[in-house]
Design a protein that fits this description.
homodimer, about 240 residues, Rossmann fold, globular, Dipeptidase E (chains A, B)
């Protein structure tokens, strides 16, 4: 039974790293004191070790020990043995390229489907979707595929941003980009605002978070806003 | 002798399609009445035909006939025979995937290197760089490679946007993304603001446009602003 939190962001404005999720994380990881950290998304290009140090400090506040998967000689075995897993945000292309390089896609998918508690933030949430084709990240490395873990039947667009009505900029809005995605792909997309997360547990899939709606994009339909506590199981 | 205009955007605020470039385009395409249009970037997912209709209207205002490459049975031949070429903006992934699918990368590169006048806007400028790894676009389709035409020894970041100091949003700024690119790649990047373009002509490579500086990113260096009329030949 899948047991995941897929969050739009690790950090919200005026709050420390993961702080807004501490209560959720205590519950998610209640059966383990040790969580395996996947630092491969390397935000701002920092090293695996630097990133793990940052994430460790967050998890210390809920009395959990975090161990970077990069410290194991055999990362597949590390994933197979994990009692809890956290994939942090950063660049989704860098993350996915590394997961393919180390052949971790299938072991990670299997572990999550078996019910190992999993936290994803930003890029770590993107990879739970059908593909990484709705990431906002810059394609700074070339992964062997855009196919990801397919834990959810939809894709997530993390850090979802509403169009700025005052903008004179001609670059595409997020909504325009996701509509372009649906010219080429059928997968529903959840525009997940910072402070929202998706909770998969007991065969449920619920939008949670601090009073924010999410924007749901389905092919050939007008996007709709859904409030917190909405079940997302209808999206396929 | 390369003869190109690589523009950040087709359209600036309070101006019609390509209008701010009309004088430049009259000069660029002065030796031909017919320009071949490459509509494969499909902005907002519109069809090749719809896109060509839009671009045609712009070119009518400078008395040039635009013909969509998609209307030819043999697009390689159409490129080989072109007296002028314009690649419009849209989604760079969609554009590059189609250029590879139709095996147009090498013919297009060859034509431009031979001196055929070329206009690129947005995605059409991105592809003139070493790779498409500094596009802002969403990876809605999977191209067989991120390698592009390599007309310039640098990459372009079109629609370059400065960080908003008032923002509380946690998504990466454009500058952060380009700095991440340089953790993995050596290619210099030109952050080209809307209203700026790069003019390649007579073995020169000059930043042009309406009084805007461009932001130059080189690996292991602090980014710098360069004013219009700066030669960009030093970037390798």
């Amino acid at each position: 039974m899948i047991n995941c939190i897929l969050a739009s962001t690790s950090t919200i404005h005026n709050s420390s790293y993961l702080e807004y999720l501490f209560n959720e994380l205590k519950e998610l990881f209640r059966n383990t004191d040790e969580v395996l950290f996947i630092p491969y998304a390397r935000p701002s290009g920092i090293s695996h070790e630097e990133y793990t140090t940052i994430a460790k400090k967050g998890f210390q506040k809920i009395n959990k020990k975090l161990i970077g998967v990069h410290t194991f000689d055999d990362p597949i075995k590390a994933i197979n043995n994990a009692k809890g897993i956290f994939t942090g945000g950063g660049n989704t292309f860098v993350l996915v390229a590394k997961l393919y390089e180390l052949q971790l896609i299938n072991p990670l998918r299997k572990k999550i489907l078996e019910g190992t508690p999993y936290l994803g933030t930003s890029a770590g949430s993107n990879i739970a979707g059908v593909s990484m084709k709705t990431t906002n990240d810059m394609p700074i490395v070339y992964p062997p595929s855009f196919t990801t873990l397919h834990i959810t039947p939809f894709n997530i667009n993390a850090h979802y941003l509403d169009p700025d009505p005052k903008s004179t900029h001609k670059g595409e809005t997020r909504e325009t980009r996701i509509k372009e995605f649906h010219q080429f792909n059928k997968t529903p997309v959840i525009g997940l605002r910072e402070g929202s997360w998706i909770r998969l547990k007991n065969n449920q899939c619920i939008l949670e978070g601090k009073e924010l709606s999410a924007r749901i994009f389905e092919q050939n339909k007008e996007p709709v806003e859904v409030p917190p506590n909405t079940s997302l199981l209808y999206l396929k």
